[in-house]
């Protein structure tokens, strides 16, 4: 089962850096030569809405790595938090492969596996958080 | 104003920097990784004040500055200027925050309940001196609950609005790219609320606490109660070239809402910052709450606190006084001596003219 594009990208952006780099290397065998449009680090400004008056304001900037590649009429894009250009490029390769219909089953399996790991991680975190819930008793 | 050119300090300067750096020894990736792992709250503080989120860079800056926070923040702010801005993300809404801690000191039974999360609020502060004698301090593991907490918690203010205690804010329709930005334009007074909140988000923690504390102690108009305090993670929602919105990862965010009674309604103050830093958020929200109608020159007046909580500017101004001021100080001395001489001469003249008793 293929994932919706947004969920796929979100999962890839948060995936384990070593795992996605290894998988990206393997994908190269399934792809034609790619043109690198950009591979760079940069900043994403993160705005927030204040809950008192509803005003949008800038919280600060986040360092990200970005990769944008092209193979014929198909494009791949990766953006991840941090300064790991290789991981961003690997993300772009997966996106490109899915766009071009190459190694789709492998890509889907990789995304599913990473999504499962991330869900398990969140579940574990939230169970630990829940342990700190105050069971308030009023006398 | 006059300047004199001097020379002869090159070697001293070179050796002084070497002396500073030699004290800290070699900086290795392992040291940076250890700082990042062992000191997350310090990393958060530095990232918030630098207004740049990257734990690795913050740890490196701390290592390079030997733990001097102002130097570390300056390093990060300077490095930030070398990077292009690629995107402005979609604004974070409170309802989408992956919440680790969420409490209210104003209401016991808030919707979603009180979730303490990671905190030392109710702990004994006892230093583990055994470690210095060779023992290991191994923290007790958390006993996880069988079911997870909800990832997203409802807003306390929204619940208060339903009960006619506060007014729900309108929706700010400003496009993310059009939100005023203190890194691109100067802050003018009265400042826009966007400038105020952004400045507080990147403010120096100690300075914010000092001025916020002044307001809490009575030098402000309103006494704060923590309406809602959150430690959470926010998704960085960016856009793929094909238009798909996705998260490029999560960042730690803290936010505080403080409340005070005004007439028959409640007034809210708000602040948030990158990283988990509760003291700064509560202090900054207190300053926000007290801003309206604050007397000129008081700690809660917007211009006063925004100027004096900007850490890079204030620390920079402070340390500039260490630099040679030989000409200006000499000029002051000359003026002082001249005044003394004039005074003595006048005294002498005055004495000689004094008629004999």
TrEMBL record, chain A:
Among the record's GO biological process terms, what is one? organic phosphonate transport
Matches recorded under InterPro entries: Phosphonate_metab_PhnG
An example Pfam family from this entry, by short name, is PhnG
Q: What is this protein called?
A: Phosphonate metabolism protein PhnG
TrEMBL record, chain B:
Instruction: Kindly state a single biological-process term from the GO annotations of this entry.
Output: organic phosphonate metabolic process
The alphabetized UniProt keywords are: Lyase
Note the coiled coil stretches, chain numbering.
none
Q: Write out the GO MF terms.
A: lyase activity
Which Pfam family, giving just one, matches this sequence? PhnI
InterPro entries, sorted: PhnI (IPR008773)
Basic and acidic residues bias locations? 344-357
Reply yes or no: does the keyword Lyase apply.
yes
Region (Disordered) residue ranges read: 338-357
Q: What is this protein called?
A: Carbon-phosphorus lyase complex subunit PhnI
**What species was this sequence derived from?**
Celeribacter baekdonensis B30
